[in-house]
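*** Residues and shapes ***
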Amino acid sequence: MKTRMENGSWKLAGSATPVRRSPSSILQLLSSLLTAFTVAATETPPDMACVSNGVFRPLFRSQSDLKEVPVKSFYLDVVPVTNGKFLEFVRANPRWQRSQVKRIFADDNYLKHWAGDLELGTNALPERPVVWVSWFAAKAFAQWQGRRLPTLAEWELAAAASPALADGTKDAAFQRDILRWYSTPSPAVLPSVSDGPKNFWGVRDLHGLVWEWVSDFNSATVTGDARGDTGLDRQLFCGAGAIGAKDVENFPAFMRYGFRSSLKAAYTVHNLGFRCAKDL
């Protein structure tokens, strides 16, 4: 047993010799506590996966643009946002209900598959991905959750991963699956989320389920971290099945590029949804 002495040192019971903590041991203790606090503070949210840093190679770029866009580590939703989750959002934010939303923020088809403002119906089951949502609505949902939409570079980096490899361009079976999805029309009734396998990062359904909005949805030639870019003409979105678009024979990349350039932020599409991201 130890007792504290008046000078702040310690001595063992029955002993005249005090036990002192050295400055180095105190620093080690503080360092351990700080490390534990940091790990706890940065623990991955249960519905998200951590995607490690990497690079995105734009499909089209000017001579002044970077060949490789650096991407910092970030969190990404494991699955796309569902009808059930979006229903919670519109209940809490009536201005985003189907009959209340302003047409500057969503076109006439906004949530057209729902039975009503607060009713999903048989065409929009709770665990299926929400579609017929505009970029404005997706961005508002993400902010409501304390998150954000992923950047184009982040989304492409995450979607490049196959189930076994961070760089799925080296996985022949994965590449065949992507091409097969692009050649198959979307089903009238979308599957539930989580039906697809997890990729290398632990993210599901980036391929073969729905196309997905991203924050900087016009930046086919983004030159840096898009979270800092300004003055963007927001007319693009990112499609499921995306992979690093540096190969001129990469048909899906050209298909995405053409599809993105046809849309504006208020548009809604029957197979266009979204998922959220978050900074580490």
